[in-house]
Amino acid sequence: MTLLMNPMALRMGLLLFVAIAAFGLGLFTIRLLRKNLVSESESLNHAPLAAEGLPVHAYHAVIQQLKQQKHELTTQQLSDRRKAKASDTLSSTILSRQWDWISAIFSVRRRCGRRAIGRIQVRV
To answer: Which is more confidently placed, 124 or 16?
Structure first.
């Protein structure tokens, strides 16, 4: 009788009851879900694909996948071409400006001599 009067024992008993109830509810829910899944899979087995339909479906899936890969490859190639063209344009622009700058230095060097090189201001 003294055990039932102890508040700590009451709390532990209540906690044990709640834990057992939660376990039972979880077990019931899992069994219910399992029955639903089994009944759904049986309904799928009742209507199988025709023997002729399965290979055709597989071929269509493969063809669709190949078309998707071809589209991705075409898009990638187009992107690579654009990047290469932009890179070539940038490289040619840089090289032409370097040659302009080098020719400007040599023309000033011819006119002014070697000491004037340090005072050259190049406009870009």
So the answer is: 16
